[in-house]
Amino acid sequence: METEVPKGHISKKYWRAKEAAGLDFLTASYAPAPVDCHFHHGFTISAVEMGVLPLVVRDLHIDLHPGEVLLLGPEVPHSFDIARATSGCRYRTLTRALYNLAPWLERALARELNSICRISDRSLSDAFLGSLRSVESGERRDVHLLHELSRGLLSDISKNTLFRFDVRSPNIRAVKAYLDANYARVPDIRELSDVGGLSPRHFIRLFKEEFGMTSHHYLNQLRINKAREMLGMGDSMLRIAYDLGFSDQSHFSKTFSKITGVSPARYLAGVGTDG
Fold first, then answer.
1. Rounded CA gap, 93 and 29, in Å?
2. Would you list the DSSP string of 219-244?
3. Rounded to a whole number, what is the largest CA-CA distance in the chain?
């Protein structure tokens, strides 16, 4: 029996299947409400079961309908303009971590990290959603099918690309490269503005224009995305907290929960959470 999602509420369930190494899953429903800008630690594949999912990437608006499949590269910051939607939506997402890709596919996708792709294919969307439902319900035999489906979809991403997200400002590109190489530290605004050759005030405004989030939020996203990869590869939470520059394991756990909506322990156990 379906339960009505209260207006302005988002119900999210992040989950993992132990047999599906390198794959993360999200099952979500919403009624109109805003969603913070974010990006993922791998290539994401999404399909809608009900309603319309309104994706926003900078000034680009894409309405994802049932029968369509959306692919996003890991370097694409995006949000969902739920306030623009007229009704609720239920959708499912699979994130395929970069470390889980076959070498040939990793090489092919190196040029697609900032791609946005939409494929209109009802049978493909139904097969993808059906496999996600099956794996979530405990039917692990469909894990292999999900690997095959995701590999096929990712292989065709360049043929169906709608848009490529690029950082327009060379100053902010320099800051992004610096953050990507120094995510285990917490550079302050003065340091980052110096890297970009900008005044602190100009840097703050320009970074938000480019990414839809503050540099601090971007940095935390980088760190938690890396943490998800490290958890998937078996690293301990204490080691992850130390390697990623968190003050302690508690600080890491709180940041992880704030960004993903699930604690690292529950994420590692493959148990989702609603919120």
1. 12
2. HHHHHHHHHHHHHHTT--HHHHHHHT
3. 57
Q: For the chain, what is the radius of gyration of the CA atoms?
A: 18
Q: Are 226 and 183 a contacting pair, CB within 8 Å? A: yes
Strand, coil or helix: what is 60? strand
Query: Do 22 and 100 touch, CB atoms closer than 8 A?
Result: yes
Q: What pTM was computed for the model? A: 0.86
DSSP state of 10: E
Segment-wise mean pLDDT, segments of 10 residues, the chain, 275 residues: 41 75 81 71 94 89 94 93 72 90 90 94 95 87 88 90 94 96 91 97 96 94 92 90 93 91 82 42
Strands 60-64 and 23-30: unpaired
The whole-number pLDDT of residue 272 equals 44
Task: Pinpoint the alpha helices (H) of 82-199.
Answer: 103-109, 122-136, 143-155, 170-181, 189-196
